[in-house]
Every structure is written in structure tokens, then in C-alpha cells.
């Protein structure tokens, strides 16, 4: 598993745990989950771009 996927899953897990434990921090929870999803979706872009250049 690549590092950006691990970090993305970690951010999602922390965001969900914070949502359960401290529901009044809903903005922070949402940002962590969105950041985690973005890391998973867009984390490997530079490898794909380098492969196309070659």
C-alpha cells in the first residue's frame, strides 16, 4: 500500500472517530474526511504523469 493511501485512510479514520467522540467539531471532522478522500483519489498523479512523459 502506498503512503498516500495510508495517510488518506488515517485521516478518514481520525475524522470518523472525532465525529463520534466530539460531534461539535463537525467542520474539522468533515475536512479530515475530505482530505483523506482527496489523498486517496489524487495521491498517485505524479507517477502517472511521469509514465506518460516517457
Commentary on this structure:
The structure is a single chain. By secondary structure, the chain is mainly α. 83% of the residues lie in helices and 0% in strands. It contains three helices and no strands. The chain has helices spanning 3-21, 26-42, 45-53. The chain is elongated.
Write the SSE topology:
Elements: H1 3-21, H2 26-42, H3 45-53
Helix pairs in contact: 1-2
Task: Provide a concise account of the structure shown.
This protein has 54 residues and is an all-alpha fold. It has 3 helices and no strands.
Number of helices: 3
Mean pLDDT comes to 89
Instruction: Write down how many β-strands occur, each being a DSSP E stretch of 2 or more residues.
Output: 0
Radius of gyration, in angstroms, nearest whole number:
14 Å
The portion of residues assigned to helices is over 70%
Distance between the termini: 24 Å
Shape: elongated
Classify the beta-strand content into a percent band.
Answer: under 5%
- Secondary-structure element sequence? HHH
Structural class given helices, strands, pairing?
mainly alpha
Amino acid at each position: 500500500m502506498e503512503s498516500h493511501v495510508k495517510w488518506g485512510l488515517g485521516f478518514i479514520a481520525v475524522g470518523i472517530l472525532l465525529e463520534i467522540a466530539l460531534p461539535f467539531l463537525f467542520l474539522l471532522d468533515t475536512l479530515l474526511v475530505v482530505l483523506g478522500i482527496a489523498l486517496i483519489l489524487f495521491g498517485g498523479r505524479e507517477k502517472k504523469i511521469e509514465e506518460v512523459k516517457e
